[in-house]
């Protein structure tokens, strides 16, 4: 959708609220559900990719150096990556704003 | 126009109407008293008279779910149910209207359990009045046939795109053999254009239907639906008018029978209006100033037409065939009372509930209701409504 969500009027909606633009769920920012964020310590990371495999949101990507990092636009802060990481390279810290 | 008048059971005539509408898909589960409609359709498909997919399903929930999928592809879709079957469909009914899918369904009105009753009343219809469907009540077999045809044209209209229920009373109407004019196929084809759903499921142009809406969008989605259902009334009126011009049978949201100058009006819905009209004839002959209103369009509710029809009467007596337990009595009466509340000039509204679970109301019964209504209007009453015919 071209407008931000909170500016869409009832007249802007497609018939029956059909989503006519495929794949636009990627615009949905699930990152703002988060109360904790993962902090990656690359000095401990062995690039095994286990965090990526376990991430239920599929939001952990490999950066150009090969380290794994959560995309905070989508990361909901569940902490599964931190729990599963063998080398304790990930710690969860409170979002404080 | 040459049209044959045939003696036919109303259920079979409803199936014939769906055939005349050249439906593409029928998904249904048999339930008394709707059974003859879907049995006949199954037969028409099986013997090659109707080129359609007949999908026998394992429940009414599946029937309506199948209808959603079918309608979403742009196929003309028909189903029928009654009573408990309509209840089992309940949650899916909202999806059909919210997704703007023009399914047409004949609802053969049946009382709800318990105690189990296969006979007719309007409890099932009233329980689905807030599901966002267009709801039309018919009085006789001819109206049932004509309005099944109209339902496709109304529902599939580009500015409407909503599902439509045609309500016919179980047994009192569904199982009667009546003389019915079945329109010729070429006449129906002239009246009813092909279904042209604007956003059908198409692998070449993928869309998502029935999606998730966060709080930031849900209110807008519901308001769009409400505006749309209200606006559908104009299309319904136009459709009935054009149907009348072509077939010489005109329909209106509220039909008046001897209402002109009547001091006392009786309002009924569905097949009981036929018997009530005989009572009105009789009372008119006796010099009583009475008239009958037949409410045909239940959703969208015809506020303006109701206000117009009753404005000069002193007393309006409403017979409901459903009971809102612990509430104001009859749902129809409750609706009309609230429609009239803000009017300066309005009749006294007297509420009766009767004809439940197939209990007949005779001509004498309607006379009794009218006379009792007049008495209550004069003496006053603290009761929200009276039940008619319950033995003390």
Question: Could you outline the blueprint of secondary structure elements for this entry?
Answer:
The complex is a heterodimer of chains A (97) and B (392).
Chain A: E1 36-40, H1 50-54, E2 60-62, E3 68-70, H2 80-84, E4 90-94
Antiparallel strand pairs in A: 1-4, 2-3
Chain B: E1 4-9, H1 10-20, E2 25-28, H2 35-46, E3 53-56, H3 60-72, E4 77-81, H4 83-98, E5 104-109, H5 123-127, E6 134-137, H6 141-156, E7 164-169, E8 177-182, H7 185-191, H8 215-247, E9 254-257, E10 264-268, H9 272-285, E11 290-295, E12 297-299, H10 303-310, E13 315-320, H11 331-340, E14 348-353, H12 363-379, E15 386-387
Parallel strand pairs in B: 2-3, 2-4, 4-5, 5-7, 6-7, 10-11, 10-13, 13-14, 14-15
Antiparallel strand pairs in B: 1-8, 6-12, 9-11
3D structure, described in words:
The complex is a heterodimer of chains A (97) and B (392). The two termini of chain A are 29 Å apart. The longest helix of chain A is centred in the middle third of the chain and has 5 residues. A two-stranded antiparallel ribbon of chain A has the order 1-4. A two-stranded antiparallel sheet of chain A has the order 2-3. Chain A is an alpha+beta fold and 97 residues long. Chain B is globular and about 70 Å long. By secondary structure, chain B is of the alpha/beta class. Chain B starts with a strand and ends in a 5-residue tail after the last strand. In chain B, helix 1 packs across helix 2 and helix 3 packs parallel to helix 4. A seven-stranded mixed beta sheet of chain B has the order 3-2-4-5-7-6-12, with helices on both faces. A six-stranded mixed beta sheet of chain B has the order 9-11-10-13-14-15, sandwiched between helices. In chain B, strands 1-8 form a two-stranded antiparallel sheet. Chain B contains twelve helices and 15 strands. At the A-B interface, loops of A face helix 8 of B.
């Amino acid at each position: 959708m071209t407008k931000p969500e909170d500016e869409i009027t009832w007249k802007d909606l497609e018939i029956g609220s059909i989503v006519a633009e495929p794949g636009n769920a990627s615009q949905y920012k699930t990152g703002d559900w988060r109360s904790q964020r993962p902090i990656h310590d690359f000095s401990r990371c062995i690039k095994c990719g286990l965090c990526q495999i376990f991430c239920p949101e599929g939001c952990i990507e490999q950066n150009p150096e090969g380290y794994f990092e959560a995309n905070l636009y989508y990361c909901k802060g569940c902490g599964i990556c931190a729990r599963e990481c063998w080398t304790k390279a990930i710690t969860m810290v409170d979002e404080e704003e | 126009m040459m049209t044959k008048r045939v003696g036919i059971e109303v259920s079979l005539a409803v199936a014939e109407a769906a055939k005349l509408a050249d439906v593409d898909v029928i998904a249904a589960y048999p339930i008394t008293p709707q059974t003859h409609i879907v049995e006949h359709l199954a037969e028409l498909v099986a013997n090659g008279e109707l080129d359609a997919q007949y999908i026998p399903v394992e429940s009414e929930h599946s029937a309506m779910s199948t209808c959603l999928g079918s309608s979403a592809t742009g196929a003309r879709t028909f189903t029928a149910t009654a009573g408990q079957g309509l209840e089992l469909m309940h949650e899916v009914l909202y999806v059909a209207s919210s997704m703007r899918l023009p399914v047409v369904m004949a609802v053969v009105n049946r009382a709800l359990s318990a105690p189990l009753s296969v006979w007719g009343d309007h409890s099932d219809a009233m329980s689905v009045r807030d599901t966002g469907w267009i709801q039309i009540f018919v009085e006789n077999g001819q109206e049932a046939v004509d309005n099944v045809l109209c339902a496709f044209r109304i529902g599939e209209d580009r500015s409407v795109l909503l599902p439509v229920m045609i309500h016919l009373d179980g047994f009192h109407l569904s199982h009667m053999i009546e003389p019915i004019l079945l329109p010729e196929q070429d006449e129906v084809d002239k009246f009813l254009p092909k279904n042209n759903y604007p956003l059908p499921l198409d692998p070449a142009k993928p869309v998502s239907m029935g999606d998730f809406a966060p709080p930031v969008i849900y209110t807008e989605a519901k308001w769009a639906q409400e505006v749309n259902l209200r606006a559908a009334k104009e299309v319904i009126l136009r459709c009935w008018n054009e149907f009348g011009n072509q077939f010489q049978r005109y329909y209106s949201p509220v039909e008046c029978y001897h209402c002109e100058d009547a001091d006392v009006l009786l309002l009924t819905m569905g097949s009981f209006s036929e018997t009530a009209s005989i009572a009105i004839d009789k009372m008119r002959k006796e010099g009583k100033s009475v008239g009958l209103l037949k409410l045909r369009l239940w959703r969208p509710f015809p506020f303006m037409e109701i206000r117009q029809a009753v404005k000069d009467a002193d007393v309006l007596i409403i017979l409901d065939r459903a009971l809102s337990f612990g509430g104001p009595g009859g749902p129809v009466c409750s609706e009309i009372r609230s429609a009239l509340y803000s009017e300066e000039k309005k009749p006294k509204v007297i509420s009766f509930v009767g004809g439940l679970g197939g209990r007949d109301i005779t001509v004498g019964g309607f006379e009794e209701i009218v006379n009792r209504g007049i008495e209550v209007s004069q003496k006053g009453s603290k009761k929200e409504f009276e039940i008619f015919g319950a033995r003390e």
